[in-house]
Amino acid sequence: MSHSLGVRQAQKQKTRQALLDAALGLLEEQSLSSLGLREVTRVVGIAPTAFYRHFRDMGELGVALVEEALGSLHVMVRAILAEQDAAEERIDRTVAVVEQHVRQHPLHIRFVARERHGGVRAVRQAIAGELDRFAEEVAAALKSQPVSEGWCDDDVRMLAELYVDRLVTTAAALLDAEEDGAEGAAGQVVRVARRQLRLISIGRQHWRGEKGEGQE
Fold it and tell me: Residues in domain HTH tetR-type (predicted)?
C-alpha cells in the first residue's frame, strides 16, 4: 500500500515539474498573463483538467516558478556575504555567482525580469516577497560586519536593498548581453557591475547617516 502511494506521489511530482518546465519554455516568448493552461498541458501531454491536481491556476504555477528562479541564488549569495574576505573579493565572487546563475538558468532569469512588473498580481507579489527576503538576509550579513558598527537598522536595510537591486539589474543585463551575442558584451556588464558595487562599498565606509533618521 505504502509503495503504491510512493509511486503515485513520485509520478505526481514528475508531472508537476513537467508542467513547470513546459510553462517556462513557453514563457520565453510571451508573458504569463497571455499563457493559457491548455498550451501548457498540451506540451506535457495531459488533459487540461489534470492541471488542477497540481496548481489552482496559472498564477500559482507562476509563483512556483519564482521560487525555482530565486531560491538557489539566495543560498549562494548569502554564503559569500557570510565569509570574512575583503570587500572587493566578496564583490567579485558575488558577481561571478550571478553570472554563472544566468548562464545556467536563462529562462528563469527572463521570466523574473519580465514578470517583476507584469500583469499577474500573485507573481509580482511573489517576486517582491522573494527580493524582500533576499534583502533581509543580505542586511543580516552586512550587520554582522565590523564596518557596520554604529549603523541603524534602516541604513543597513537600505544598503542591502542597493546591493540586491544591483544584482537583479546585473542578471537581466547579462541575459540581454548573452542573447545579443555581441563580442565582449557580457564582460562589459560584469565590469560595470563590479565597479558599481565597489562604489557602493566605498560609500558605505564613509556613511554616517543623517540627523533626524535615528542618528545623533
Answer: 13-73
Indicate left, alpha or beta for 206 from its phi (over 0: left) and psi (-120 to 50: alpha). alpha
Express each pLDDT in 92-143 by its tens digit. Answer: 988 998 999 899 999 999 999 999 999 999 999 999 999 999 999 889 988 9
Beta carbons within 8 Å of 207's beta carbon, 6+ residues apart: 151, 155, 159
Return the H-helix or E-strand segment holding 113. helix 106-115
Q: What is the dihedral of CA 88, 89, 91, 94, to 10 degrees?
A: 180
Q: Is residue 67 a contact partner of residue 130, using CB atoms and an 8 Å limit?
A: yes
Q: Give the number of other CB atoms < 10 A from CB of residue 63.
A: 20
pTM greater than the 0.70 cutoff: yes
Q: Which residues pair with 211 in a beta bridge?
A: 215
Eight-state DSSP code of residue 147: G
Distances (CA, A) of 123 to 6, 8, 48, 67, 133: 31, 29, 21, 10, 15
| Nearest-angstrom CA–CA distance, 53 and 55 | 6
